[in-house]
Amino acid sequence: MTLRLNVFVCLIALLIQPNHGVARPHRPLLSVNEGGSDRPKYWILFKAKDQHGLPALSESAISRRQAQNLPLDDSDRPVSAAYLDQLQREGVLPLNKSRWLNAVSARLTAEQYAQVTNLPFVAGIQAIDPAIIITSIGGQDQPHGASPHMAPVMTQIQATDFAQAGLTGRFVNVGVIDAGFFGADSANALKHVFARAGVKRVRDYVNDKKTHGDLFHTLETMSDFHGTEVLAAIAGNDPVENTQYGLATDATFYLARSDQGNREYRGEEDNWVAAMEWMDSLGVRLINTSLGYAKGMSNPKENYEPSQMDGHTSLISRAAQIAADKKGILIIVSAGNEGDDRSWRIISTPADAQGVMAIGATNSRLWNRIGYSSIGPESLPYLKPNVSCFSLYGTSLSAPVITGFAACIMQANPRLTNKEVMAIIEKSSHLYPYGNNYVGYGVPQASRAIALLRNQPLPATARSVRASGKSFTLPVTSNESVVSVFHKKDATHILQQEAMKVNNGKLALRRSSGEKQTTVDLKKEVIEVIWE
């Protein structure tokens, strides 16, 4: 997947003030490979930990765990200092340390690889996939110079309902792990966040010599705009244009740059894991990441295969599952933009992990899958993506919208666990309970989420009917002249999606070969046709 720079230019033109308020880009800093080595990077996995090590957590993080009845365990202890000393004596310089995976990342020569493999405390060595990609672009027909269409998604998810309830993400800590945040502190849509010191901590895992200000004022590649776009989609609000871009306008933010954007494919999953653990140590409960792994290894023999998007093959998914199960973190991930890539099509990792919330993208009118949005593998025993919403420019801009949605829920009831918040978002979605592997449970609706938070009954918007034969005429009540229909081989897996005309209050359904169920999406109602 190629990153289109014109996407960044047209989006940031809307976000950043022209001619003032933005520092001139500094000379690009030294890249990782310029100052280091082009040796392959690996995870070195350890067998055990020092049982006397203290948990590497802040008081707020420990309090959060206690509030969620999540016990501290071995994964909260740091990696063994004795192991690190031994590696350094072997001439190995650890790059990142992961207490969750009990591992460190390092660049190794072939000789070092052999030496480290034979160390008695080393459980194994695993190559780090350099295939991290930014999932921010749309289909091939994207017009040059187009403007971001965030207003339609705010209407789609019923943003005004949250606003009327006073839900703006206040008191909620949100982590954003991305490729860069250039110009964020000068963007019109984010001025309100920085004016109230809403960004508390920043960290650059690509270049640790960068200061707080460098992250916002130093442009190394055009990908450094990407995190700014994502942050605006979570919390953006431009009073000059009277436009709301995101829901969590009063949230508090922790930002991490984990990805260097000067190549299409990158092997920096260790930075991502380190950023996750840093945010966990600070007590962050909600994290957005619009990065994902698919294919593109420098050595084609090491590429991920679609069959490996199973939730546990990649270490990045294993780390995400640890965060969900043991740390109480809600991770919201873009599903990926490989839906039009016939050699791949499915979601990337870590969106494949069961515990994360993977977000797809819909069209603005029909609310069915937009072409580029990745689909869920049929081999998974759980539904992916989880939900979807409109984004013209990729799932990188649909995931932060749902992150803002989650922040509003967490403000309303801070005692909810990550899994309870995920369940509310899914149950609030317009297709629930008839989800599919194209758009998940559909588009979350703020009015339904508020009703669930208040323990109020939801309106009866879902029903099923039975049909037989090759065709069926379904009476429908809808103001839409064209509606979305999902033809399915079973309860969740799509054969094809179709836009169908409503004629005189009826839909003429024709059963496809192998079709067992059909979902008729009327937006305000969903009808499941079960073929006999």
Automatic annotation (TrEMBL):
One of its GO terms (biological process) is proteolysis. The active site is at D178 (charge relay system), H226 (charge relay system), S396 (charge relay system). Residues 172-442 form the Peptidase S8/S53 domain. InterPro entries: Peptidase_S8/S53_dom, Peptidase_S8/S53_dom_sf, Peptidase_S8_Ser-AS, Peptidase_S8_subtilisin-like, Peptidase_S8_subtilisin-rel. The keyword Hydrolase applies. Keywords: Hydrolase, Protease, Serine protease. Pfam families: Peptidase_S8. One of its GO terms (molecular function) is serine-type endopeptidase activity. Belongs to the peptidase S8 family. This is S8 family serine peptidase. It comes from Spirosoma agri.
